[in-house]
Amino acid sequence: MIILGIETSCDETSVGLVDGDGFALANVVATQVDVHARYGGIVPEVASRQHVLDIRPVCEQAILESGIDWSDIDAVGVTYGPGLAGSLITGLNFSKALSSAIGVPLIGVNHLEGHVYGAWIRTQKNDLQTFQQYVGEKLIMCLIVSGGHTELVLLEDHGRFRLLGETRDDAAGEAFDKAARVLGLRYPGGPEIQRVAQNAPTIESLPRAWMKGTDDFSFSGLKTATLNRARSLGIYPQGNSLKEVDDTIIAGLAKAFQDSAVDVLVTKTVEAAVREDCAGIVLVGGVAANKALRETLVKKSPLPVGIPPFEFCTDNGAMIAMAGLINYRLGRRDQWDLDVTPNLRIGSVI
Ligand code: KG4
Ligand code: ZN
Fold first, then answer.
1. Considering only CA atoms, which residue is closest to atom 8 of ligand 1?
2. Ligand nearest to the CA of residue 148, numbered in listed order
3. Confidence (pTM)
4. Which ligand minimizes its atom distance to the CA of 290?
5. Looking at the domain 164-306, which fold is it?
6. pLDDT digits over 283-341, tens only?
7. Measured in angstroms, how far is the CA atom of residue 248 from the centroid of ligand 2?
8. Which residue has its alpha carbon closest to ligand 1 atom 10?
């Protein structure tokens, strides 16, 4: 059994393959980060055109790296939402053509479920397997944090998710990206904030939006507080003043921002997981690459924590192949009328 997964929902063109045991055979990613960096964010039109150029060579490279033949593929999984419409269409149309050419089923995958199942991909040394035995018997709390999403979701059984909470405004990754911009750091901002926050001095903390009584999040207040503090420290607006500001001041503010975002994400996730009597917590999505977030969650959680290796945290085809495998086993198939759903959600609000 071999499933091929295609991911083009945002600014990464990626194709991955997993076998029937969930081992990743290949995971090729063509990132457009450099293409969009000059604009300070993703330009949808540019993204979809780049996917058109990249999808075929990325797919061929994935087949080559996996060492399999096209005829070994049993199904094609593809992200059909949420994401940018033009980008999703590129991957979906390519997948339809591919599944038809090799005569295998097409399986539409929810990108957010894909992120969760990134934690199910087998590598030689990950310890996430302990979680897999619980599925269907115990609940698993999943925190999905990416550039476009911040969702707290309960995995009740394979393919069955319950949405507990989400962001009311900016996504966690979006907040990192916007704060980085205020600090004059490069896009994408998450890795940059992490980099400069290392060894930074501790300054007066920034506010935390607890959204008491809910499992929701909010990052717009933190974003505004960061902007206001940057102004008072002379970091923003950029221009002449930027040159005069000491790097340690920028680093201190980056750290204060990161501390606040991490504290809220970790505290609320742990509280919800304990309350729901979960067997463990899974942390996924691009922001799960953040070292402070990973370490703080592991430190503060009384439950086992599973975090996929870095390459399966940010957008990738292997996680879509993995989710495709789970859906294949659940008997789910899609037809040629499958359309993209840019606002697709995960689970249902309770
Ligand atoms: O999952 P992803 O690759 O794409 C989306 O589906 O959005 O997530 C990208 C987001 C960006 O906002 C990026 O700044 C953030 O993940 N990110 C990080 C780190 N690495 C990537 N945020 C904080 N710390 C990091 N180390
Ligand atoms: Zn994503």
1. 286
2. 1
3. 0.93
4. 1
5. Nucleotidyltransferase; domain 5 (3.30.420)
6. 999 999 999 999 999 999 999 999 998 999 999 999 999 999 999 999 999 999 999 99
7. 32
8. 147
